[in-house]
Amino acid sequence: MGVRVQLLLGEAWESLFPHAFTLMDEVRKYGGIEPFWTFGGGTVLMLRYQHRLSFDIDLFVPDPQYLGFVNPRLSEAAERISEDYIEQANYVRLRLPEGEIDIVAAPNLTEHPFEIWEIMGQPVRVETAAEIVAKKLFHRGYSGTARDLFDLAVVIEADPQPLRNVAPFLLRHADAFIDRLKARPALMRDQFGAIRRREFWRSYEECLDMAEAFLNSLR
């Protein structure tokens, strides 16, 4: 097994994560399969780079059929976790005071999408930074946020080569991603300023320049 996550006893994601095991147990119990799921999103990038605070849990599953087993409308176990939820065709979001748990039907994109980490004594498939960024830009690059830019910039600076290896996924909406950021500079700067940073201090302009130059270099 790879990384063993050291719990800090106080971070929001830690109080949410046991629910991930409960929800996947529902898939196992009522779906009759051994669930395949990965842990990704901004909280994993936080664990990797300590660049900003992140509170939510993003779980990715390969098939929308999983969602019926984690939907509070259909699952008593999910309802016990939260009665405040959103359901869409491709995701279920559970809202709790500590943060949100998203279960998203989105198959892995990259050739090596995850590593095995030990979290709370259990093996968990934790997405690589390249997989996380690939999903962000491939699925919703056209609606990118200042936080997406911040996450992209930290990975470009810390570990650019794996991103180069997944260039087709990054380029799908690359122009729309940059154009959106440039079209609303005041709003994006405000969003950027609201990010609760930890160990990455580049400015909005620096991150935008980094992202644009890097994406252009992939063409």
UniProtKB/TrEMBL annotation:
Keywords: Transferase. It comes from Cupriavidus agavae. Pfam families: AbiEii. The keyword Transferase applies. InterPro entries: AbiEii. This is Nucleotidyltransferase AbiEii toxin of type IV toxin-antitoxin system. It comes from the Bacteria. GO terms for molecular function: transferase activity.
